[in-house]
Write a structure and sequence with these properties.
Order of helices and strands: HHHHHHHHHHHHH
Number of strands: 0
Distance between the termini: 40 Å
Largest sheet: none
Helix content: over 70%
Structural class: mainly alpha
Length: 331
């Protein structure tokens, strides 16, 4: 048994909340950088707690995972197959081209951008989909499919796109996935099942909402620790911000064009067009930050690329939302 998904109530996946999260994360970057520059002792202490924060982050993200939404997948297998193919077959090609354009010959930055591109969003894209009058019920069914696929493919992506860094130990991947993801997944979903059995539905919904509100704070804590621990190296590569921003903008434009082409060929109705556009444009940066911090430890440049890309993504999704609303058919 899983917690019955409450109606799409306001949570951290709403667009206004996403903007507040963006501001919050910028504050975490700034404060972490200042701590790292002013107090090496404090930054060393903070670095020792990174693994604990990563584990908390992963647990919260997996606790939010609504496996019950998979039941909705059987209602529109055709769309889910289109979305899966777009996210895991077409986007890797688009991402590879863009990453090669901006960071060819810079393996760490290339790897960071590719890791960001390859993981479709599993949280706040639903908020933007709802605001653009898209199909959020079908979008909820996408979430467990996307998160399971990206976890299974992560070792392959590392081998293909981060092997040039010389830092990837693929032999450690099975143990890493077991320790950091399979065990937390089983624990998180077991707690959800017990909660659904023991508590009223309204109380379960309140707990889920509270967990959703915690995620940005834990993500900010992780980013604060990472920047405090590695600010020196990151500061030497501040020019990457402009390149990453340009790459993410180009990615968003490319996914919009491809998504519209797929929608026309498939004859999708407007709500499904919106959902396809949003799932292709939005990326799962929080989980990728946690994954990368484990798989590529002490590589702050890779993490910095993902963080910058996430901050650029939020205003782009807002602009995409407005563009889609303008194209909405008159009723």
């Amino acid at each position: 048994m899983t917690v019955q998904d409450p109606p799409l109530a306001p949570s951290h996946d709403d667009a206004p909340a996403a903007f507040l999260t963006c501001v919050f994360l910028i504050g975490a970057i700034t404060l972490g950088g200042l701590v790292g520059l002013l107090s090496p002792t404090a930054s060393a202490t903070l670095s020792r707690g990174i693994d604990t924060t990563i584990l908390a982050m992963i647990f919260l993200l997996l606790f939010e995972l609504r496996l019950g939404s998979l039941l909705n997948a059987f209602q529109n297998v055709r769309f889910l197959a289109l979305a899966w193919g777009a996210n895991f077959l077409i986007i890797p090609i688009i991402g590879f081209g863009i990453a090669s354009l901006f960071f060819s010959g810079q393996p760490l930055l290339f790897a960071g951008l590719m890791i960001y591109f390859l993981a479709p969003c599993t949280d706040w894209f639903l908020g933007f989909t709802r605001l653009a009058r898209g199909d959020t019920e079908l979008g909820a069914a996408l979430i467990p499919i996307n998160i399971m696929t990206q976890l299974l493919l992560f070792p392959l992506w590392l081998w293909l796109f981060a092997n040039g860094t010389g830092l990837v130990d693929l032999s450690a991947m099975p143990a890493m996935l077991l320790q950091w993801f399979l065990i937390p997944l089983l624990a998180a979903q077991s707690i959800r099942a017990i909660m659904a059995w023991a508590l009223p539905q309204e109380r379960c919904a309140q707990i889920m909402a509270a967990v959703s509100r915690c995620v940005p704070f834990v993500l900010a804590a992780l980013i604060f620790q990472l920047f405090a621990s590695h600010v020196g190296e990151i500061a030497n590569h501040l020019t990457l911000v402009t390149s990453v921003a340009a790459a993410v903008c180009l990615f968003c434009a490319a996914t919009l064009v491809v998504g519209e082409s797929v929608s026309r060929l498939a004859g999708l109705a407007y709500p499904q067009q919106v959902l396809l556009a949003m799932t292709m444009a939005a990326r799962n940066a929080p989980l990728m930050i946690a994954l990368t911090a484990i798989a590529l430890p002490n590589q702050p440049l890779v993490l910095a690329v993902i963080v910058v890309a996430m901050l650029v993504e939020i205003p782009l999704l807002t602009a995409l939302n407005q563009l889609l609303l303008k194209r909405r058919p008159e009723r």
